[in-house]
Specification:
Layout (H helix, E strand, L loop, with lengths): L1 H31 L1 H12 L3 H17 L1 H11 L1 H18 L6 H15 L2 H9 L8 H6 L4 H18 L8 H23 L12 H10 L18 H29 L6 H29 L3 H18 L6 H21 L12 H13 L1 H16 L3 H25 L9
């Protein structure tokens, strides 16, 4: 039995979870590459800083608005049709940005990109939950999350390379970049229609014993037109898990905002060294996601694998502010990234244990919406503290405190929903 489950877990990882990384990678790239295009696009389209800020922000609001409808659409038509539809939609919209002639056209396309991408992350968690048993829950959910640090590490060089190369047919370089990064998503969407099975029963590479095992042990089972229990969105486990996910994602923005300031104060770095320094914490995030989720699955322990790394990340990012601009600060930022990735990689193994077929989809979407709202709140908050105090000390202390609060929320979840007397896991 152990040999069978090990072979099954390996097949799920390589055939489903790792291919999912490609879609999240392209999603992140198509969402943020406007920052590179802006170097030339703003002047050509006559975008003011306010108009560019609007174009950058609209994708985020579309992203939030699209999550509930997208996952309900997934339940209605099945995974392979859903993933194909949303990838082709956002790929076409992302590519069409190469044709815009006015701010309004850009605004509309950014909303479409965000709306189509919105349900991708929660949809993948929902989909993979029917292939994840308790023993492999953390690593199954964590593998697609590797796309985020990978997109940060490799996305910038790819976009920069496309902008620097001679664009075909006399196109402006920024238009070529949008086209070259959008069209592969369309191709992935077409491939998704033929590649992904909707359920374990549709996976030809899983034998009958494996299908029976998943039917009895998987975290969730998807059925068409599944009835949803909307009351889950206000259940305490969802509210506390949403707060925890918000804190963990806020920590990522803390690293994003502190790291460039640190690097800008370092001198004597080549362009390659500068890029390596900026990538260092995100390499740590990727390593943390992979190894901590695997260790959590091997031991079966979840709470310490989230709470302890969250606290370590908070302390490290706070200490980095006082470590100057040398090796010590870089080491602390690497530790902060490593610990943050470790906590994020195991997170979804906590709340999904308490969701059933009627609550899984809406529970996951609600948590993800609340968590990703950190992207709208954290940058403005950090900017306020930076402007009010004239330094990053208060801002990094705030982010560190938020990550320490994440550790507190883990304790709350453990004592309130998983203690034997709580009965919350029934």
């Amino acid at each position: 039995m152990q040999q069978m489950t090990g072979k099954l877990a390996s097949g799920i990882r390589w055939r489903l979870a790792i291919p999912s990384v490609l879609f999240l990678f392209m999603s992140s790239l198509d969402r943020v590459n406007i920052s590179f295009a802006s170097l030339q696009m703003n002047a050509e389209l006559g975008l003011s800083p306010t108009q560019y800020g609007m174009a950058s922000s609209l994708v985020f609001f579309g992203f939030l608005a699209g999550q509930y409808p997208s996952v309900l659409f997934l339940q209605r038509i099945g995974f392979h049709r859903w993933l194909s539809a949303i990838a082709i939609t956002w790929g076409i919209a992302a590519s069409a940005q190469a044709l815009v002639q006015s701010p309004t056209q850009l605004y509309v396309l950014r909303v479409i990109v965000g709306f189509a991408e919105g349900g991708l992350a929660p949809g993948l968690v929902f989909y993979l939950s029917q292939f994840a048993t308790e023993r492999q829950r953390a690593s199954t959910f964590a593998t697609p999350m590797l796309a985020i640090p990978l997109s940060i590490i490799f996305g910038a060089p790819i976009s920069g390379w496309l902008l620097d190369m001679a664009a075909p047919a006399g196109m402006a370089s920024w238009r070529w970049m949008f086209l070259a990064e959008g069209l592969p998503t369309v191709l992935l969407g077409i491939g998704a229609y033929f590649y992904f099975p909707d359920t374990p029963a549709h996976a030809n590479w899983i034998d009958d014993d494996g299908k029976a095992w998943l039917e009895a042990n998987a975290a969730n089972r998807m059925t068409r037109k599944q009835a949803n229990d909307w009351s889950v969105i206000v259940r305490p486990i969802v509210l506390v898990s949403s707060a925890l996910w918000f804190c963990l994602l806020a920590g990522a923005y803390g690293i994003i905002f502190w790291l460039p300031q640190l690097v800008s104060q370092m001198t004597g770095l080549s362009a390659f060294q500068n890029g390596l320094v900026n990538a260092l914490p995100w390499i740590g995030v990727g390593l943390g996601i992979y190894f901590n989720s695997a260790h959590s699955d091997r031991t079966g322990e979840r709470f310490l694998h989230v709470g302890v790394p969250a606290a370590v990340s908070g302390l490290a990012i706070t200490a980095a502010n006082f470590a100057g601009t040398g090796v010590a600060a870089l080491l602390l930022l690497f530790i902060a990234g490593l610990a943050l990735g470790s906590a994020q990689g195991v997170f979804w193994a906590l709340p999904t244990r308490l969701f059933g077929p009627r609550t899984m989809a809406l529970g996951v979407v609600t948590i993800n919406i609340c968590g990703t709202s950190a992207g709208a709140i954290t940058p403005h908050t950090i900017g306020y503290f930076r402007e009010a105090t004239g330094s990053f000390t208060a801002a990094t202390a705030l982010v560190g405190s938020i990550l320490l609060l994440a550790a507190v929320f883990v304790v709350v979840i453990r004592l309130s929903f998983f203690a034997p007397q709580s009965g919350a896991n029934k």
